[in-house]
Amino acid sequence: MNARLVQSFDEWRAATREFIARRVPPESVEWSSQDGDGDLFSSALAQPRDADPASASASASASAPVDDATTVAGAGACAAAETGMTAADGAAPAFRLPRQLMELLEAAACFSAADRWAFLYKVVWRWQLGEHDVISPADPDGSRLHGMVKAVHREEHDMHAYVRFRERNEADGAPRFVAWFEPTHNVLPQVARHFARRMGNISWMIATPTATMMWDGETLHAGPALMRGAADIDDAGEALWLTYYRSIFNPARLNADLLRSHIPSRFWKNLPEGAIVPAMVSAAANGERRTGQTETVGRRSGATTIPISAERAQPERDEPTTLDQCRRCELWKNATQAVPGVGSEKARIMLVGEQPGDQEDLAGLPFVGPAGAVLERAMKEAGVQRDSIYLTNAVKHFKWELRGKRRLHKTPAQREISACHVWLEEEMARVKPEVIVALGSTALKSILQDGSATMKSVMDAPLQHDGRWVVTVYHPSYVLRAPDEATRQQAYNVIVEGLRQARKLLGD
């Protein structure tokens, strides 16, 4: 068993060169750190005590060439032939790691895990054996490697966002600004370089439970951990910030769940506003939402305090008079246009689909894409003329998500179906169909105004609703995405039979 004590990425890299050259497999190496692998900020402390941001940034990759790969001492004639490099003084041939892998390894080395050095060595070992899929997220080890890197980058982002500096008197030579943070991973050196660039020649210090970084305006200094109280100083600017924070707080617009999801709970204890937010949330729940109410609400007779929800405490707006003006839900923001129904204003049969698709959104007409072609074929087979029916959708705006360069359909939520029902009601009142064919479950829920309605319970036979017959069939798009030919044919037959049944209900 080969034991090796490492406290930084550079030490691990040097040890890895040695073990790879000797062809030592991962299971024969025992990696350890001086503090039981608790050296969360050892890479920072391993640098010179005085280093400017540029030199500190370069120190982690000082031994790496500037081309697209990093040369590491290794073993194996195949690797030497691949790089065309010859080792000097009888050393083992060299092999090359791509820059992408070296960047992943260096970032993952900041991840706080007891076995991180052993795991990174395993990755390098597999690479030099020719298993290059080890850096793919589809590989188990590659997946863990990318997950570690993602967590480290997230921690850097969080530290940029949630470090709060307090200002102190700089006359005694101490840093002007002081902050305390409790990171999960070893990101203090990278974050220190970020703040050195952002804050210019203003001196500051960031203390953590494990290490400290200080900037004197020209040079970064790494030091040992300090007590939490080192950052507890009186700051008049912080008091001003809290006063401003209270003044812009609107209880009527409070969404406590969203607030908690945006800022993880572990950061609140070190944020100055964290001390006042709980009381403000509690006060909002106990009646202070009236702060955001409209004047017309405040002038109502009765009790001085009027309990009202945040949703109702909004300015009164005129209801939209046309579909193009509709803002009843958020779907209009990402849609090209609203897509109204088309067809005969005296149609006895109305076909109701789910929502416009990509082509319908661009054309402004329902069922002009692939699903429309399936429906056209089914109507012809059932003997239903397109110009004799009214064709529309339960939701009038296209709901989609981006996949590459394509806009892919996304099923509307029940609140969006309910918000758009007013337009379907207007169409039914105007056309007065005797039979409505619901194409899919979304259409069925909108027609029946029942969010729990399922196709399975009503597909066997038509039902009466508000004086009309309702026939339920599959949506034509289901025929296109069915997993096999048998399922596709069965779904298509259901649509054809449903259209025939609609004709029979009219006595045709």
UniProtKB/TrEMBL annotation:
Sorted UniProt keywords: 4Fe-4S, DNA damage, DNA repair, Hydrolase, Iron, Iron-sulfur, Metal-binding
SMART domains in UniProt: UDG, UreE_C
Entries under Pfam families matching the protein: DUF4130, UDG
Claim: Iron-sulfur is one of the keywords in the record: yes
InterPro entries in UniProt: DNA_repair_put (IPR023875), DUF4130 (IPR025404), UDG_Type-4/5 (IPR051536), Ura-DNA_glyco_family4 (IPR005273), Uracil-DNA_glycosylase-like (IPR005122), Uracil-DNA_glycosylase-like_sf (IPR036895)
Ranges for region Disordered: 26-66
Superkingdom per UniProt: Bacteria
Record carries keyword Hydrolase: yes
Domain Uracil-DNA glycosylase-like intervals: 340-500
Gene3D superfamilies: Uracil-DNA glycosylase-like domain (3.40.470.10)
Low complexity bias (residue ranges): 53-66
PANTHER family reported for this sequence: TYPE-4 URACIL-DNA GLYCOSYLASE, TYPE-5 URACIL-DNA GLYCOSYLASE
Family: Belongs to the uracil-DNA glycosylase (UDG) superfamily. Type 4 (UDGa) family.
Protein name according to UniProt: Type-4 uracil-DNA glycosylase
